[in-house]
Structure formats: structure tokens, C-alpha cells
Amino acid sequence: SAELVVTTSILKATGSDDPMGKGVTLPKWLVIAACIIFVGGMVAVGLCVYYLAPPPPGSEVTTDTTSTVTETTTQTDMTTTTLRPPGDINYRLPRHFSPILYTVRLLPIIEEGNFTIFGDVTIDMVCNENTNHIVLHINDMDVHQETIKVSGEGLEGMMVHHTSFDQITQFFTIHLSGELKAGMQLSLSMSYLAKLNDILGGFYRSSYFDVNGNRRYIATTQFQPTDARRAFPCFDEPNFKARFAITLGRKKDMTSISNMPINRTVPHENMPDYEWDIYEESVPMSTYLVAFVISDFVKNPAPNAGETEVAVWSRPGAEEQTRYATNITSTVLEYFEEFFQIPYPLPKQDMIAIPDFGAGAMENWGLITYRETAVLYQPGVSSAQNKQRVAVVIAHELAHQWFGNLVTTDWWDLLWLNEGFATYLEFKGVDRVEPEMKMEQQYLNDAIHYVMQLDGLNSSHPMIMPANNPDEINELFDPIAYEKSGSVLRMMEDFLGLEVLKEGLTNYLNNRTYDTATADVLWEFLGDTATKYSVDLNGLTVKDILDTWSLQKNFPVVKVERNPENYTEITVSQKRFISAQFEGAEEYYWHVPLTFIQDFSNNSSLKRRWLSNSSEPAVYTDIIDEPNSWIICNHKVFGYYRVDYDEINWDLIQVQLQTNHTKIDVMNRAQIVDDALNLASADYLNQTYKRAMDLTSYLKNEFDWLPWETADNNFDRLRNLLSGTEAGALLNDHIRSLALHLYELYDFNEDPMDKHLDLFLRTIAVRIACGTNFAPCVEKAKENFINWSADPDNAELISPNLKPTITCTAMREGDVKEFDFLVRRYNSTNVAAEKDQLLSAMMCTDDIILLRRLLEWSITDGSPIRKQDAVFVYRGMATNQIGKTLALGFIQDNWEQIAS
């Protein structure tokens, strides 16, 4: 409508991407606070968490250019400290040695007041060049100097002269009394003490409360990317692959698991209540993939396991929640064996739900560790979205067992290759076990549209990023490495062909098995396969094409313009997409695989072309067949780019959507909605928001989930920006009018015959109706909440899919009574996914005292909120108008504690 067009200036004024910041450094708290206040919503949270937040606690490396080096001379037991002069710091280990086998023995004491690790390690290695010192990593451990030994043929007289430790690089250097010669095989052994910490990294402790209310501790690991050095001295870089022989000490009433099966268990020689679990020797792998857990957890074997033994471990009382994971894991594992044409190389695949876990999951070979919400699912309590998340994360981690574990990228700057392929492959794995979830559609929403919001910012970064120290490495784990990289690889599937891609990947994995590789090696294998099958790459190599996508940030907006005097002729050009354009922005160009279609019922009408990485437009005269026919570019959104059209084609598309929208594929309908709203926001689209709103007005006749999910995500961002304004009220009215037919169809009453996406669509209908204050929806949500709060253990009283909207609406309309109920339920529920949902609902309140309480809980030890869940508090505050202001002051006042 005309009233909505005038909001363009307001939207521009609240843009999140300010180019004036070049060369200007602001305090992180100020940047985060600005994100929360001025942007709000998931976009702000995504930017803050992925681009600006500090690395996980315990992984900090000081940025002071003066490095402290501690030297210990074993003969005198004297420790001296020297200062290294300022200058560039090299964090990479020298290549003097190649480890062959680690023999690691660990005994963690898992008791209040004595969280200590007793460790011994022997590293068998080969000397690659003459040297008189050995450099490896340690962090936060005390090595017993007198236990350091170097042995091997011809090394009988070799002594340790002294050692030194660099706190900045975490290099532990053992200076020897003589020289080691290239080609020598030797063993380095030592004993040490380390901490069983609580920072969710290294070898750390987690806890849960049993049915009697007693706190129970477990010991678990998270080594990626640079925390194996907290558990044992090692060459802690991915290209130092070796085999591992692990021995774990534990109390007799606990169990241990690691990457490999247990070979045998023997009594502890000095502690009668303890035993040693001695594990089979592993295949060669990187240190970050080593894992072990000591717990009193329950093993839940998969009922349909094939040749590989599969089990999911959980805390006692959560066994039932593992059933879904145990039912699908073997099938997904078998799918990837078929996809790669390479058998899974280990004898077993354990998975375990860790109560305190900083990441979503970790692909440790043979022992995948998960946050509870990523692997546990309770029917009747967990939602369809929770179920899908479990399937997606399991598929992602299993894909890593080949791509990342079997063959590992040489250094962390290629993290995007590991995570991109796992992200791309996850939807294929889920599609094997849950075809009803329609994962191709899910991928467009969850990956492509999601990451384009972030990658459209000038502050984005290329997929390949240099990373030298642990801080820089940790910053690589963001949506660019995962969702953007996966989206670019999905685009590569389309222009190579799936079978060509699969054969090239198999050749690559077979050639580099148990080794590391670079992107160029992979591109060579894919290029050779493309040549074998005569794939048209426009005279380019795979590397030529992929370099334009991996070495540049952002993505193109492709402009397709018809010649009004010659309907068969179109001109196609490209321009860098930036969500907040500014004068003087550098221009980038890509090799763009173009696809055009005029009739989705006839695949033969699909036409492919290449647009070169140049400012020069391309002219085609063989794409359009009919003068009055629309044309869609980017068939099924395989291409990672946005599309803009001339006014004639936009008009034709709009007419088609209004008359019979099903003539355009559902994925391209979602593309049109997302592109139009984002092109308008960034001022690329003629007539700005008027055109976008006119295009989306067809939604009043839309009954498919994907276009509605796309529209709702975009509308939600606009609503957050315009909240409290007259324009915001008009936007709410407009959105409600578009979605009313959905609410009238679906209402709150779920049908047992509902398919997966029907459940999602009902959730959208109720969320929009209640979120835009539609009175019948609000009253029904409050009624549902009252009934459920009177009998919260009765799962039939509230739909898990509608619970987020019902509880948020009740909290927004309620007061401390509703808040206290949500807290009680949060503390009592045994389902982690329900905890997450209830915590989000608490932040729907407008009570300042209650919001402040949640903020305090986010940084208070012993509060109901675990460390891993603090981010949910800030996410909720970002979508709460009052919470934004409170969060600003809270972050400013407590930054040091939050950062630590």
C-alpha cells in the first residue's frame, strides 16, 4: 500500500552496516549493544554472536605483542622468565617432527573440590630435519620436568637440558643436550597435571541433577579447534595426523567411551575403587578429533544397526529421548557410505548427549558429542522443529566422518571446506530418512536465505580467511563457513551435475585417505571428472569459478532486462549486493552459473548460460520464446545470488502470482518474496517497497510453507525495526490481512494426519495472528496457557509446536505469576528442548524487574541458566523493545564477566 512505501527512509535510517567504520575501532560492548538496540531480531543476534562476540572461555590468547617465555632448567629446578621483544608472532609449529603414535593415559578425579587430571603421554615420532629441540603445544597444565624423557636407537646419552614455555603461542620447547638427525625415530614421554575445568573446552567437567536432586559430574572433551593441548601435550595442528592409543582411569561405578572400542579393562594398581579402560589403537587422525567421556550415562544401542555398531548415550532418565536418534543414525550412515562409495572405517559409532556443551555438536571420529537439544527428542514435548534439528545435526556430523575426518583440510583457513560440505550434505542425509521434511525447501530457508542476510553486509568476509592464532581460528566458525559455503557447494552440484560431483569427491577421498589436503587438490579432482564427462564450464576450471566465490565476500545481484523492442533479447549484468549501499564501495564480480525457465511443467525449457566475472553485460537472444511470457532466473535457487528484473518482467511475474501462483515452482516463489523484500530494503528494486509489497500481496492465496516462512522472516525483521511506530502498526495490519486465511484454516487444532510442513504452516499462522495482536488468537493462547499451567505434565493440553507462541503471548499479556510458572517448569522439565523454549518465552515480558533477573542469571554461577544457554537470553532481549535498552546497560556494566 502507499502508506507502507513511506517507511523506506525509516528502514534506511536503521541500517546495520555502516561503511564509515573503516579504520575506526569501537569497544566490542558498544558494537554489540548498538546491534541489539538499533537492529534487533535474529539478524542482530547473528551478527553479534558470529562476528563480534569473544571466543569461547578459555580459548583467549592475549593480543599483547610482548610474549612471556618461562624457562626451566631441569638440573637446577630453576624457573626464569624472559620477555620476547615485540614483533610478528608465529603461532605455527615448526615442521621438525611428524608424530606417528600418541600413547595417552589419563586419570581424571571427578570430585567436588578436586577436579584434577593426572596424565602421562608418550609420542612416537620421526625427525624430519636436524634439530636440538622439540616444540609442541601445552595449555594450562604442569609438566613434571623430571619425567621428560627422549629415547630411541642411538639416543642413549640424550638428556633434556632445559625447557621453555611461551604463554602466547602455547609452545612448550624441550631443549636437548645433543642434536637429533633427520630420519631418526624417537619417543618423547612425560607426566603432568591438568585441570578438569568448567570452561566447556579441553578435558572439562559437565553436570546434571539426578532424580533425587543430587548433582552428578561427568568428564568430557571438546578439542576443536585448539584445545587438545589442554588434555595432553601434542602437536595440536590438523596436519599433524597420528594414531592414538588411549587409556582412561575411572571409578568402578562409571563407564568410559572414546573414539575406538575398549580392548580390555584392568584394575588400577594403587586405587582399589578405580579401573583402567585400555582402548584399541585408532586410525590416523588429527588431535582435534580425539574424544573421551567418563560418566554414569546409559548406553542406548540402535535397534537396526548394520555392520557398524551404533549407540546413543544419555544421562539416566533421558533414555526414551534417544529413540529417534538411534532409529535414524544407521540409515544415514549407510546413505553416506553409498554417496561416497567408501565404507565407514571404524568399528563403532557412539553418540552422546552432554548436559553442558558450547557447540551444537562435534564430529569426533567414532564418538560424536552433542548438546542435548541436538540429539534428544521427546514426542509430545519436543516440537517438529526440534525433531528436524536432531535429524539435521546427526546428518551433518556423520557427513564429517568422511569429509573432515577421513580427509582433513590442511589448515583452519580451509574450515569452510569441511563445514560447507557437511552443511551441504546434511539435507541429503535427512532426505533419506525423512523425505516428508522436504529438506531441499528447508535448505533454502535455513541456509541460503539465512546467510544472505549476513553476507549482504559490508562487514562480511570471504569464505577463505587467514587464521594464525586461536582467536582468529575461533572466529572462523560462523555462518560464512557453514551456510554460505554449503550454498556455494550446492550451486556447484547444479553446474557440475550430481553424479559428476559424487565421482570427483570419491576420487578425492580415496586419494587422500587418512591424510590432509587443500582446496586446490579437491578442485583438481572435480575438474578432471568434469572433463571426463564434458561438462560445460565456459572454458574455465573449477578453481577459476570457485575462487571468485571463496576469495570475495558478499554475492552478486543479477539484473535480467528484456529489450522492449525485441522480446527475444535479454541483457544480463551483475553487481555486488550490499544491504546498505554507500558511495565508493568496491565492486566485485563472479563467474555466475545462470539458469532460466519459462515453464516449470517442462524441464526441457530450462536453459543454462555463464555470466563472466566482468562488469560487461551479456546479451542472449535465445532465452525467451514468447513476448508476453515471464522468465525466471535461478531455477530452484541453486545459484547463490539475488535476481532483479526490468519492470515488464516484474509485472508479468506479479500477474502470474495473482492469477495462478502454482505455475511458478514453490522454491522460486520463495525466492521472489525474499529477493523483492531485500532488494527493496537495499534500494536496488525500482519503486522500492511498493513493488515488494505488491508482489507479496499474492500470499493471501498461498498455502505452501516455504513462501510463507520466507515472508514471515522478512516481515519479522521489518516489524522489529518499526515496532512502536505508526508504520509498524500499518505493517501489522497488512501482514494480518495476508495471513488470515491460514489462521482460519489451521487455528490451534492439530490434526494427527498433519504432515511435517503442515505443522510448520500452522505454527506460522498462529504466530502471525497472535504476534499482530489478533484478539481471537491472543485469547485462545491465554486460555491454552491457563489450562496447561494447571496440569503441566499433561502433554495433551498444549501442542509442542504452538507452545512457543502460546507461552510468549501469555507472558506478554501476563505478569510475575506467568513468569514464575515458566521458571518452575524450566527447572523441572527433563527435556532440554523445552527448557530452551521456556527460556525464550520468559523474555517476552515487558516487566523490567523480570528482564533484569534474566540478565543477571545469564552470568551467575548456580543460576537456573547454564553457561551454554546465556546466548539465548541476549537473543531474546534483542527482540524485546524494553529488553534492548536494558541489555545495553547490562553489557556495558558487565562486559569483562560476559567476555570471560
From TrEMBL:
GO terms for MF: alanyl aminopeptidase activity; metalloaminopeptidase activity; peptide binding; zinc ion binding
Positions of the ERAP1-like C-terminal domain: 630-899
Annotated site (Transition state stabilizer): 482
UniProt EC number: 3.4.11.-
Domain Peptidase M1 membrane alanine aminopeptidase: 324-549
A Gene Ontology BP annotation from the UniProt entry: proteolysis
Annotated ranges, domain Aminopeptidase N-like N-terminal: 99-289
Chain residue ranges for the region called Disordered: 58-79
Cofactor entry: Zn(2+)
Cell location: Cell membrane; Membrane
Enzyme class: hydrolase
Transmembrane segments: 29-53
Binding site for Zn(2+): 396, 400, 419
GO cellular component, as recorded: cytoplasm; extracellular space; plasma membrane; side of membrane
Cofactor annotation comment: Binds 1 zinc ion per subunit.
Mode of membrane association: Lipid-anchor; GPI-anchor; Single-pass type II membrane protein
Top-level division of the source organism's lineage: Eukaryota
Record Pfam families: ERAP1_C (PF11838), Peptidase_M1 (PF01433), Peptidase_M1_N (PF17900)
Predominant subcellular localization, coarse grouping: membrane
Catalytic function, reaction form: Release of an N-terminal amino acid, Xaa-|-Yaa- from a peptide, amide or arylamide. Xaa is preferably Ala, but may be most amino acids including Pro (slow action). When a terminal hydrophobic residue is followed by a prolyl residue, the two may be released as an intact Xaa-Pro dipeptide
InterPro entries for the chain: Aminopeptidase_N-like_N, Aminopeptidase_N-like_N_sf, ERAP1-like_C_dom, M1_APN-typ, Peptidase_M1, Peptidase_M1_aminopeptidases, Peptidase_M1_dom, Peptidase_M4/M1_CTD_sf
Chain intervals with Low complexity compositional bias: 59-79
Keyword Nuclease: no
PANTHER family registered for this protein in UniProt: PROTEASE M1 ZINC METALLOPROTEASE, THYROTROPIN-RELEASING HORMONE-DEGRADING ECTOENZYME
Family named by the database record: Belongs to the peptidase M1 family.
Protein name (database record): Aminopeptidase
